[in-house]
């Protein structure tokens, strides 16, 4: 290489964060009976989730900005968002990969897998946001989809039984629509849910598609609602997602 030439710029690595409330984050969301709404985020940001100049977030109005918690505040707008696993994931990763990290939050609480089917608003918005995040910029690269969803499918036996085929369809569709046939996908097996949780967990862990892996959130401590991961758990999940990505895809 000519010493007078500028070295090639390291690509910004893009990660899609999608699913439902445990991906959009409820860590640190507490009841506040004297206020409306009666829940609020306590504002506690552990060191592992601190902002860093190398970590960016794709906002609801399709602009890159410095990333900070709560990452989904303008995406999952009908509920109070708290801490999720995205910043912990990115901070774990930035120490071991070069270049900027771009997070594209897309998760929306309380959503079932059928609402993420091709043609549905949530799915189409996820694809649109992801495409816009790299549009006109050759210096970006979509690296993985991080997916944590399924609690809404555990209250109906039918929904639990068809979860696997619906998730496999989503994987096929998103890879096709982003023109990334080998896009790495990291699923999170449920930590909480309702009557048919084990059926959905079995479906999640049973998916056998190349470049699709599953990490297990079972046993991570929950908020008082026994449904959402607490702050400590979201930090740990971020580390788990980063380790899974580095181990399988770097």
| Overall structural domain count | 1
Strand/helix succession: EHEEEEHEHEHHEHEH
The percentage helix is 25-40%
Question: CATH superfamily assignment?
Answer: SGNH hydrolase
Number of strands: 9
Q: If helices are DSSP runs of H or I spanning 4 or more residues, what is the number of helices? A: 7
Named at the architecture level, the CATH assignment is 3-Layer(aba) Sandwich
Let me know the average pLDDT: 94
Query: What is the fold-level CATH name, i.e. the topology?
Result: Rossmann fold
Oligomeric nature of the chains: single chain
Strand-pairing-aware structural class:
alpha/beta
How would you describe the shape? globular
Domain Sialate O-acetylesterase: 12-246
Protein name: Carbohydrate esterase plant-like protein
Pfam families: SASA
Enzyme class: hydrolase
Question: How are the SSEs ordered, and which strands pair?
Answer:
Layout: E1 12-19, H1 21-24, E2 29-31, E3 39-41, E4 55-58, E5 64-66, H2 86-94, E6 101-105, H3 121-134, E7 140-148, H4 157-161, H5 163-177, E8 185-189, H6 197-206, E9 212-216, H7 231-249
Parallel strand pairs: 1-6, 1-7, 4-6, 7-8, 8-9
Antiparallel strand pairs: 2-3, 4-5
Helix pairs in contact: 2-7
GO biological process, one term: carboxylic acid metabolic process
Protein name: Carbohydrate esterase plant-like protein
Domain Sialate O-acetylesterase: 12-246
């Amino acid at each position: 290489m000519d010493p007078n030439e500028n070295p090639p710029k390291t690509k910004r690595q893009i990660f899609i964060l999608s699913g439902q409330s445990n991906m959009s984050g409820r860590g640190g969301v507490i009841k506040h009976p004297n206020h409306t709404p009666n829940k609020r985020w306590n504002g506690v940001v552990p060191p592992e989730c601190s902002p860093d100049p190398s970590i960016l977030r794709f906002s609801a109005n399709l602009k890159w900005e410095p990333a900070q918690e709560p990452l989904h505040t303008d995406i999952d707008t009908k509920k109070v968002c708290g801490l999720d696993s995205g910043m912990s994931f990115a901070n774990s990763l930035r120490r071991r990969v070069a270049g900027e990290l771009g997070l594209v939050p897309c998760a929306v609480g309380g959503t079932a897998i059928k609402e993420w089917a091709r043609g549905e608003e949530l799915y189409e918005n996820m694809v649109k946001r992801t495409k816009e995040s790299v549009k006109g910029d050759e210096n970006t690269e979509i690296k993985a989809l991080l997916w944590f969803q399924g609690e809404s499918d555990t209250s109906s036996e039918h929904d639990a039984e068809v979860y696997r085929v619906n998730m496999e369809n989503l994987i096929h569709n998103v890879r096709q629509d982003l023109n990334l046939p080998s896009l790495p996908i990291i699923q999170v097996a449920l930590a909480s849910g309702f009557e048919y949780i084990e059926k959905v967990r079995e479906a999640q862990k049973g998916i056998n598609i190349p470049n699709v892996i599953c990490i297990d959130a079972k046993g991570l401590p929950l908020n008082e609602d026994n449904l959402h991961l607490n702050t400590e758990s979201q930090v740990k999940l971020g580390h788990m997602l980063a380790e899974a990505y580095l181990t399988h895809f770097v």
